[in-house]
Design brief:
Elements lengths: L3 E7 L4 E4 L6 E10 L11 E9 H10 L5 E14 L5 E14 L5 H13 L1 H11 L9
Helix pairs in contact: 2-3
Length: 141
Amino acid sequence: MNKSILLGRLTKIPEIRYSQATNTKVALFTLAVNRRYVKPGEERETDFINIIAYSKLADFAEKYLNTGLQICLSGRIQIRNWEDKNGKKRYVTEVVAEEIDFADSNKKADESILYENITSDTQSVQNTVNEITLEADDLPF
């Protein structure tokens, strides 16, 4: 089974491209993922993992993902190889996203969704604001 689950922050906004063969939308971004354990006397290490999302997930990434936003994603690891201009074989390891969820404790994700709604319909925005606004006492945890 090839399954990877990652929790991290975007290092920059996703880069959008289109595949040459099928003209499919592709989003490329890097996720900064902190390692779980810290050796005594050392700083926490961070891995920078390349992510690739296709089609509808690429649309989602383009609309809602911003620098610093914390997300949780699941996908599969893939290794691609090719020859560069000099004929040298190159490799890249990346995660192909299958699911992306917001994981930020603040409301950056909600603000992105809210902004999109503002441009389409002010009445639905008011309904969204009423649903999003929660007091600390309203939270179940």
